[in-house]
Amino acid sequence: MDELDRRILDVLRRNGRISNRDLAATVNLSPSPCLRRVRRLEKSGVIRGYRADIREPGSSQPLCVFVGVRVRHHAGEHVRRFVSEVIKLSEVVECHHVTGDLDYLLRVEVPDLAAYEEFHANKLADVPGIGTVTSYVAMTTVVTEG
Q1: CA atoms within 13 A on the CB side of 115
Q2: What angle (nearest 5°) sits at the alpha carbon of residue 71, between those of residues 81 and 51?
Q3: Distance CA 144, CA 146 (A)
Q4: Same domain for 115 and 67?
Q5: Dihedral pair phi/psi, residue 71, rounded to 5°
Q6: CATH assignment of the domain containing 15
């Protein structure tokens, strides 16, 4: 990966829907070589996909809660079961296996604090293998990907 690939990725990170023609012009490259680079980045797994950030019409900004989870057991089957259950929860937008004091960091989006309380008590609590849960409510989002 060279500097031109990095510039392409930076533009796509900010606008994944940009046309190849506009992307090429932005990074000062002709369209054909630009498209070849994007396809190579996709094929190699650097670009893993494109997504739409969707908010239902009439709904307000969701409450974003980062949830730190420590699991009780780290043996393979216990971890696989935890992961398979937590990714079924529609409120969980992201699930990261992390280093440090936590085992997993979840990004949860719900309409409000009451909905998070319901999620915490009646969904997350039922996921097998959870030892401890620590919740961090986002007050303001300063930087986002898109």
Answers
A1: 13
A2: 65
A3: 6
A4: yes
A5: -90, 155
A6: 1.10.10.10
pLDDT digits (tens, 9 = 90+) for 21-49: 999 999 999 999 999 999 999 999 999 88
Angle, alpha carbons 82-114-121 (nearest 5°):
35
pLDDT-flagged residues of the chain (< 70): 53-60, 144-146
**Model-wide pTM > 0.85:** no
Chain length of the chain: 146
Q: Can you give the residue range of the structural domain that contains 25?
A: 3-43
Please, which residues bridge with residue 66 across strands? 107, 136
* CATH code, domain carrying 89: 3.30.70.920
Q: Which amino acid is present at 131?
A: G
